[in-house]
Amino acid sequence: MAAQPPADKRDESDRGESDRNEGCRRGFLEDVIRGLSELQKTLPCKYLYDEAGSELFEQICKLEDYYLTRTEAQIFSDHLAEMAQAIGPDAVIIEPGAGNCAKAEPLLASLERPAAYLPMDISPEILLAARRRIHTHLPNLDIHAGVGDFTEDETWAAQPPMEARRRVIFFPGSTIGNFDPDQARGLLRAFASRLNKGDGMLIGTDLDKDPVILERAYNDSEQVTARFNKNLLTRINNELGADFDLSRFAHRSFYHPLRCRVEMHLVSLTRQSVSVAGRAFAFLEGETIHTENSHKYSLAGFRDTLRSTGFVPIRHWSDSSSHYAIHFAEVH
Ligand code: AVJ
Fold this sequence. Notes:
Layout: H1 17-37, E1 41-42, H2 51-61, H3 67-87, E2 92-96, H4 104-110, E3 116-121, H5 124-137, E4 142-143, E5 146-147, H6 153-157, E6 167-171, H7 181-194, E7 200-206, H8 211-217, H9 224-240, E8 249-256, E9 261-268, E10 272-276, E11 279-283, E12 288-295, H10 299-307, E13 311-318, E14 324-331
Parallel strand pairs: 1-12, 2-3, 2-6, 3-4, 3-5, 6-7
Antiparallel strand pairs: 7-14, 8-9, 9-12, 10-11, 13-14
Bound molecules: N,N,N-trimethyl-histidine.
C-alpha cells in the first residue's frame, strides 16, 4: 500500500469513507445546534431526505392528498411533444438534484437526437443505478453523472462543459419552492450564469391555490407527511446522540398567505428539555421547530421571477385545474 500523506495534508478525495462520514456528521451537528439556538428554532430541510426520509417522500408522492407529483406527471405526459419542440434538437439536458432521474427519462426519449444528459445528485448510488437504467433504454445517449451538491461550483465544474451545444437545465418537482424567494432568485441567477445566451430551462412550480387543497397536501389523512417530518428527530437521535421523545412532538403544516408558502413545523406538546450531543435545549409548550417551506407561485409571479434572474419566459404548461405549472425559459 502506498504511503499516505498525514491526514491534515490530504484533500477530501483522498480521505476514507469514515473520515468523510465524520465530516458530514460534524456539519449536521453544527447545523442542528445553530438551528435549535435561534429564537424561532429551525432545521435545514435538506436533512429530511436521508434514506428513510427519501422513502417516506416517495410514499408522499403517491398519496391522493398530495396532488403535486401526479399533476406534474400529467402535464409532462400531455405536453411532452411541445416541450421537446421548445428544447429543440441536439440539446444537452442538465438536471440538478436528479435523484433517480425518473422524470428526465420520458423527456429524453421524446427529444430529437439529445446530445447528452448530465444529472447531478448528492447520492452516488441512486445516480449510478439511474444511469444504468437509462442507458439500457437509450443506449446512444451520452450520460455523465455528477456526484455533489448542485448549489456548489465544484459539482458544476466536474461536468463536461459542452458549451458548443444548446444546454437546457431541467428542474422539475417544485424543488425551487423549498427556497425563500431571495434564495430562489439567487439560485436561478446562478443557473443563468452557468448557461449561455439562448440556452434554456424547464422548471416546475406548484401554483398558489385554495388553502384547503394546499393544507390537505401537507397534512395527509394517512399521516405519511407527519412521519416524514418526525423522521428528522429520529435521525438526530440516531446520528447525533440526542434524546428527542417523539411522543412529545407533533407534526404541523399550514399555509401562510402573506408569504405564499406552506410551512412545516414540529410542535413541542409539553414544556421540556432535549439534549443533543450533551447540550440542552429548552422548549416551551407549543414552541415549534420550523423544518421546511414550500413556496407557491402564481403564473405571473414566477414569470417575473424568471425575468429578474436573467431569463425570458417563453411558454408554460399547466393542468386543467391550474394546480401546477411547468415553465420553459431562455437565457437572454
Ligand atoms: C420536494 C420540496 C417539492 O414542498 O411539496 C412534501 C417536499 N414536504 N411534503 C414539497 C414535501 C412535505 C416537497 N418538495
